[in-house]
Amino acid sequence: xxxxxxxxxxxxxxxxxxxxxxxxxxxxxxxxxxxxxxxxxxxxxxxxxxxxxxxxxxxxxxxxxxxxxxxxxxxxxxxxxxxxxxxxxxxxxxxxxxxxxxxxxxxxxxxxxxxxxxxxxxxxxxxxxxxxxxxxxxxxxxxxxxxxxxxxxxxxxxxxxxxxxxxxxxxxxxxxxxxxxxxxxxxxxxxxxxxxxxxxxxxxxxxxxxxxxxxxxxxxxxxxxxxxxxxxxxxxxxxxxxxxxxxxxxxxxxxxxxxxxxxxxxxxxxxxxxxxxxxxxxxxxxxxxxxxxxxxxxxxxxxxxxxxxxxxxxxxxxxxxxxxxxxxxxxxxxxxxxxxxxxxxxxxxxxxxxxxxxxxxxxxxxxxxxxxxxxxxxxxxxxxxxxxxxxxxxxxxxxxxxxxxxxxxxxxxxxxxxxxxxxxxxxxxxxxxxxxxxxxxxxxxxxxxxxxxxxxxxxxxxxxxxxxxxxxxxxxxxxxxxxxxxxxxxxxxxxxxxxxxxxxxxxxxxxxxxxxxxxxxxxxxxxxxxxxxxxxxxxxxxxxxxxxxxxxxxxxxxxxxxxxxxxxxxxxxxxxxxxxxxxxxxxxxxxxxxxxxxxxxxxxxxxxxxxxxxxxxxxxxxxxxxxxxxxxxxxxxxxxxxxxxxxxxxxxxxxxxxxxxxxxxxxxxxxxxxxxxxxxxxxxxxxxxxxxxxxxxxxxxxxxxxxxxxxxxxxxxxxxxxxxxxxxxxxxxxxxxxxxxxxxxxxxxxxxxxxxxxxxxxxxxxxxxxxxxxxxxxxxxxxxxxxxxxxxxxxxxxxxxxxxxxxxxxxxxxxxxxxxxxxxxxxxxxxxxxxxxxxxxxxxxxxxxxxxxxxxxxxxxxxxxxxxxxxxxxxxxxxxxxxxxxxxxxxxxxxxxxxxxxxxxxxxxxxxxxxxxxxxxxxxxxxxxxxxxxxxxxxxxxxxxxxxxxxxxxxxxxxxxxxxxxxxxxxxxxxxxxxxxxxxxxxxxxxx
Length: 992
What we know:
Elements: H1 11-22, H2 28-42, H3 47-63, H4 70-83, H5 90-98, H6 100-108, H7 115-131, H8 137-150, H9 155-162, H10 173-186, H11 190-201, H12 212-224, H13 228-242, H14 249-261, H15 265-274, H16 278-281, H17 285-304, E1 311-312, E2 320-321, H18 322-344, H19 348-358, H20 375-382, H21 410-423, H22 428-440, H23 455-472, H24 476-493, H25 496-517, H26 522-541, H27 548-569, H28 575-591, H29 595-611, H30 615-632, H31 638-651, H32 655-669, H33 679-692, H34 696-712, H35 716-732, H36 736-747, H37 750-753, H38 759-775, H39 779-793, H40 800-816, H41 820-836, H42 840-858, H43 863-882, H44 892-906, H45 910-924, H46 934-951, H47 955-965, H48 968-971, H49 975-991
Antiparallel strand pairs: 1-2
């Protein structure tokens, strides 16, 4: 698989290409490129470039899970060393001797390599180390690992290694901690193992592989010792570090096993799908054995729970179920274990496999993510006909009831469905769903019953119900088509009233299509709805003798059309027409005792008051409606009224009252089928109330429940919006791994992968994920995602402002990575987009940060570039001031002056730095109870004190400044700002 990269024409180009390849993630692309660069290096006939190329290739093989090729490359390096030792400087020599351990590990992973050959290689390593005068601790470490792998008594081997002093060629502290902890874990001492692991699990010791490897081993000991919450945290962070990585397939397998044993089989199946590449890309037999064993643990558990026929991801080329993949994995796993045991002359690997497979679940359920999905949910999603739009979701905590028992006979079922439909009863939907199934079944015979009517009328009923559900999902074009077809069938069946109602519903749905085609223009939307209302009035007037329930629905549609017009336009002149239509509806409904339409009229009236800005009147109407519903019904309207009242209370800034109403609304909703109440809206509004009450964790729970409810209702856009809000709240709360895990789950949804979700919404999810990666200190992954998003958003001609924001953030991450040339290019693109849609604050923040990073990382050499960025930021501040722009955060001018101070301090221009900070203090002004800005003022004073007292060596002046300022923040109630000033003053006095 050759790459398209041009061949280096000089050794300088070769070394540059090697550096570029070194930045790539391990995998096929990096490995193939490294192979090509070795070929290129051989053409230069110089040993040093070839040594560098071979080292890069061996690393690609080692961490790309290709152990068979690593020793071959190392043999070439060893030959070069023996023939031309002077070509190896101290760093290259260190690399060479370090990689003896790589080869030892590679040979262990290959069951076809005889045990005698493994011991011979360790003897070669010992001889080479002794000849070079190197300490033998690394050799004894490899001897211990071989003993542990074979299944020999490791007591002596462990002591010979662990008791020796470390050398420069010893494994890093983190890797050695892992081996020592595993030694205790294998002996059954979980507590001691975790105690040894503590520095690695806490992130105090780390390397390229750690803590990801240790985390995968520590998960089950943590659960066994009662630390399930810690296991959860580490699972989220550790899995992300190893997913889809062929070199860490064994770690992925242990994460799958952890899911299987903690009641998270559904998540395990999802993670298996995410790592399907490992079935075909793992070339290390030992890694593959560990991976397949973890997979089998998961599949055995899933099959044992009765889901053997659930489709799962497996080897490419065929479809797999849990049962069939388990059989395949078992055969392959047993074969690999037997090969290792045959080579080693023990039964260790078969015994270890059996031990893992025989483990009983440790917990019934451990909530790992905000979007935990059960096996039943996955099965439901898999059963849908369109896999690209199917998704299972976790049930709501308070499960809504199902419909009452349905009549057995078809005539009774049809009559019951129509009766409930006339009432607007939620159970009608279950009746229509059952009838739809019966009619679609082969051999259906329609009842010959005058009360039921002809088959064509039933077909019309089913189409009308389907159209109503499509409209609820905002699929208005589908709804129009179905209603038109239903109307024709009603005419054929001799049901003119039903035909008129179907056409009326189609008219309103068509208006909503026209409103959408207006691209959000209020005028276009209002015109479409005005036309729809006129058509509804005309239909009503041209069709006399309608049944009361049909006429009531027509009046309700007329009022709804005008209510939607008011909502779209916000024009106060549109209020009175709505109220007039509502009055007609209410009078008619009271006259004919149609309780559902009385309730509908009062609900529309309350909503109209709210849209007109009269929230107290809206609350009064909602209260009257609630009282009426309690006495007259219909009871299934209560949750909707409580939801409206809760939103009104939010508008009145009474979060406690809103919380009470919305909570009661959800409780009432549980008494009805899920589709009867918009519980997604209730949960979403309750999340807002929780935020106002200072309960962000509860708000997060409500947001995820809102999203789950929207998914169940097939409102996928609303669901993804709710999940996006939940992810952002996670990020704001510092729950970084929860945020990333949630977004990873969403971004692998079939309809997202298939491109069926709005691309801007998906981009928003990816943007939050990129910010979370940055917050989680994964700068490389965050930068890569931002670069991709910036390239995509450059094509958003209708939204240059978003591109300006994304490109600005991209520039900052590139600068943080030290890639200042690319950062400048990204900033240039942000400025070009800013010219079309100003984003003063974001661009100013970006340019100031680029200046700071240049000065910080490059020192005096970066001053000119830093000042150029600040000059551009100054121009933007001038433009913002001229445009009357008010920033959300700090003043652009004072922030710019402060940054001048920092930049000059970084490059040693301390007088200029102090002058800039004095200017910043003047711009910020003295803090006061009304003016705010205490934090910015205190930071300017602190930095000025450092520059003046430490770098300019004028401690007396600095102390005068600090002493005058130190108590001012506390006097204003800002105690946090006082401590840094007091600490600096104490430090200056100590050093005086």
